[in-house]
Amino acid sequence: MIRTPDGPDPAPTPSPDPPASSDHPASSDHPALPGELRWRRPGGADQARVLAVLDDWWGALGGEAGSRQRALLLPRLFFQHFADTSLLGEATDGRLTAFLIGFRSAAQPDAAYIHFVGVDPALRRRGVAAGLYRWFFAQAAAGGARRVDAITSPGNATSVAFHTAIGFRIIPGRRTVDGVDVQVDYDGPGLHRIAFTRPLTPADTARASES
User: What is the pLDDT of residues 159-205, one digit of tens each?
Assistant: First the structure.
């Protein structure tokens, strides 16, 4: 700490919410992303926008408890500190249409992690979710990662089918639900999860060079 004749200088106060930047390393012409949407990195102020659509996009799955769980998965820190590996999609009128929150692992430099992804139901089955994942694969590969990990909840057959179709494999677990391996108590007592991993390939790295 710098000292002055009157004592130590006060510590600078960081800006709580650095502005979202449109200068994202993957622009709207990235080959994996639908061009009709505008893509940018998130900022702290975007957390409220994302939380506001979760119940609608998830069809109020799980009722009030499910709503709380989803909200708790997206504290503001993800929008403040992992913006460079996360992405928001907006319609031409500014309406939020899709998001991906992901990050590179600090403890495992060869790994990246997709934490939460959402797509407006009106845009599903149009390649938006797959585009977000492939965009993330490209960024992770360009940053030196060699694999991407993700999880989903037991019984979510749609999520399991999506992840396996895009190249993830299910990590063996001690229990099965509907014939799928589950990691018991993965996120706490009774919070079982299906865990996925996917190696990054030369094709993923090539896509990064096109962005």
Answer: 999 999 999 999 999 999 999 999 999 999 998 999 999 999 988 87
Strands (E), 17-131: 38-40, 87-90, 96-104, 111-119
DSSP one-letter code for 171: P
Across the beta sheet with 87-90, the strand order is: 38-40, 87-90, 96-104, 111-119, 147-152, 194-199, 169-170
Q: Tens of pLDDT along 78-96?
A: 999 999 999 999 999 999 9
Q: Token pair for residue 170? A: 């299910």
Q: Which of 130, 141, 122 is nearest to 206 (CA)?
A: 141
- Return d(Cα 209, Cα 211) in angstroms, integer: 6
Q: Provide the terminal-to-terminal Cα distance of the chain, rounded to the nearest Å.
A: 42
